C-alpha cells in the first residue's frame, strides 16, 4: 500500500473517530441536561410550605352529577383533640359542603364532596387568585362562583378560566366510622400559593 493510500485511510479513520467522539459528547451532554432538569423539578416540588398528601377514602359507589348544578351547603364542624370533624353523611347527602374552621386567630374555609369516581375530596375552599371561597358543581366540574374557573371533580385539574393553576388545595383526612376527620395542623398552617 502506498503512502498516499495509507494517509487517506488514516484521515478517514480519524474523521470517523472524531464523529463518534462528538456523538458520544452530545449524548453525555443530553443526559446531564435531563438529569439536571429532573433534579431541579423535584426540588421545586418540595420548596416552600410543607404540603400534605390528600386522603383517598372511597364511599363505595360512583356518583353522577350529570345534568345537575349542586350548590354548597353550609354545615358546622367540631374541633377537638387537634382534629376538625364533620359528618360524612352530610357530604354524601348535600353533594358539596362548606364548613368554616375558626379557632381564634386562624379562620379557614373548607369544602368536601364525593368525586364521580366515589373518592371523598376534602380541600381548602379557596380560589386563591380571585379570593373566592364559594364553589358549585356543574356536571363533572367544580366551578368558582366568583371567576367561573372550572376544574375536573376527579383530580381538580384545570379546564378553563383564569385561576386554573390554583384549585382548592386538597387536605389530608381520615374517615372514622361516619365522621370525616381532618388534622388541624395542615389547615391552620395552610397559606395561599399566590
Give the topology, please.
Elements: H1 3-46, E1 69-71, E2 73-74, E3 78-80, E4 83-87, H2 88-94, E5 96-103, E6 106-114, E7 120-124, E8 135-138, E9 141-144, E10 150-152, E11 158-160, E12 174-176, E13 179-183, H3 184-189
The strand count comes to: 13
Q: Structural class per helix/strand content? A: alpha+beta
**Proportion of β residues?**
25-35%
Strand-and-helix sequence, N→C?
Answer: HEEEEHEEEEEEEEEH
Radius of gyration, taken over Cα atoms and rounded to an integer in Å: 27 Å
**pLDDT below 50 for ≥5 consecutive residues: which ranges?**
40-50
Instruction: State the shape.
Output: elongated
Helical segment tally?
Answer: 3
Largest sheet: 5 strands, antiparallel
Quaternary structure type: single chain
Average pLDDT across residues? 85
Proportion of helical residues: 25-40%
| N-to-C CA distance | 75 Å
Strand order of the largest sheet: 1-8-9-10-11
Characterise this structure.
- This protein is α+β, with helices and mostly antiparallel strands and 194 residues long.
- It contains three helices and 13 strands, in the order H-E-E-E-E-H-E-E-E-E-E-E-E-E-E-H.
- A five-stranded antiparallel β-sheet has the order 1-8-9-10-11, with no helix packed on it.
- A hairpin with a 5-residue loop joins strand 9 and strand 10 (150-152).
- It starts with a helix and ends in a 5-residue tail after the last helix.
- The model is unreliable at 40-50 (pLDDT under 50).
List keywords for this structure.
alpha+beta; 3 helices; four-stranded mixed β-sheet; five-stranded antiparallel β-sheet; elongated; single chain; 194 residues; 29% helix
Amino acid at each position: 500500500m502506498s503512502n498516499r493510500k495509507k494517509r487517506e485511510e488514516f484521515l478517514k479513520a480519524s474523521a470517523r473517530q472524531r464523529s463518534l467522539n462528538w456523538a458520544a459528547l452530545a449524548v453525555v451532554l443530553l443526559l446531564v441536561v435531563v438529569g439536571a432538569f429532573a433534579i431541579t423539578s423535584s426540588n421545586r416540588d418540595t420548596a416552600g410550605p410543607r404540603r400534605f398528601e390528600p386522603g383517598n377514602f372511597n364511599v363505595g359507589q360512583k356518583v353522577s352529577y350529570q345534568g345537575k348544578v349542586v350548590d354548597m351547603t353550609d354545615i358546622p364542624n367540631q374541633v377537638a383533640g387537634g382534629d376538625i370533624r364533620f359528618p360524612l353523611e352530610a357530604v354524601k347527602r348535600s353533594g358539596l359542603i362548606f364548613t368554616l374552621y375558626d379557632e381564634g386567630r386562624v379562620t379557614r374555609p373548607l369544602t368536601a364532596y364525593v368525586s364521580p369516581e366515589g373518592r371523598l375530596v376534602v380541600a381548602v375552599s379557596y380560589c386563591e387568585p380571585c379570593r373566592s371561597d364559594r364553589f358549585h358543581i356543574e356536571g363533572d366540574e367544580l366551578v368558582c362562583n366568583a371567576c367561573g374557573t372550572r376544574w375536573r371533580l376527579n383530580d381538580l385539574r384545570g379546564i378553563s378560566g383564569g385561576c386554573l393553576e390554583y384549585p382548592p388545595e386538597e387536605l389530608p383526612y381520615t374517615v372514622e366510622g361516619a365522621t370525616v376527620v381532618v388534622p388541624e395542623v395542615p389547615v391552620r398552617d395552610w397559606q395561599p400559593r399566590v
